[in-house]
Design a protein that fits this description.
- With 116 residues, the protein is an alpha/beta fold.
- The protein has one domain: Response regulator (Rossmann fold, 3-Layer(aba) Sandwich), CATH 3.40.50.2300.
- Helices cover 37% and strands 22% of the residues.
- It contains 4 helices and 5 strands, in the order E-H-E-H-E-H-E-E-H.
- It has a 5-stranded parallel β-sheet with strand order 2-1-3-4-5, with helices on both faces.
- Helix 1 links the parallel strand 1 and strand 2.
- Helix 2 runs parallel beside helix 3.
């Protein structure tokens, strides 16, 4: 398995954010959480992350807009979208991204991370 990766998890549901961060740490990655896009942008400006794992539906700025801004500043940043909409959101953005439909399990996330 490649890595470990440094991953920023952006999820406004604090329980889900905590669970994902803990599971990523159990897989050997470094994971930090942000509650919204604005907080995430501040964290991205202050620390290097290899992967942005973001929910699409966030309060304020969407996960898609966050990813656009983040990849403009760091074109090497890998993007994973978590979406309850069921469609492959990554097909509709103009930057490389992977979509993970909700609900997902950790094996699905781990398979995506192994591809990076």
């Amino acid at each position: 398995m490649p890595g470990p990766h440094t991953i920023l998890v952006v999820e406004d549901n604090s329980d889900a954010q905590y669970l994902v961060c803990e599971m990523l740490r159990a897989m050997g990655h470094t994971a930090c959480g942000a509650n919204d896009a604005e907080q995430a942008l501040g964290m991205l400006a202050g620390q290097h992350f290899a992967i942005l794992f973001t929910d699409i539906s966030l309060p304020g700025m969407s996960g898609i807009e966050l990813a656009k801004k983040a990849t403009a500043d760091d074109p090497d940043l890998k993007i994973i979208f978590a979406s309850g909409f069921g469609s492959n959101v990554s097909d509709y953005v103009d930057f490389p991204a992977v979509s993970l439909p909700k609900p997902y399990d950790m094996l699905q996330l781990q398979a995506i991370l192994e591809g990076f």
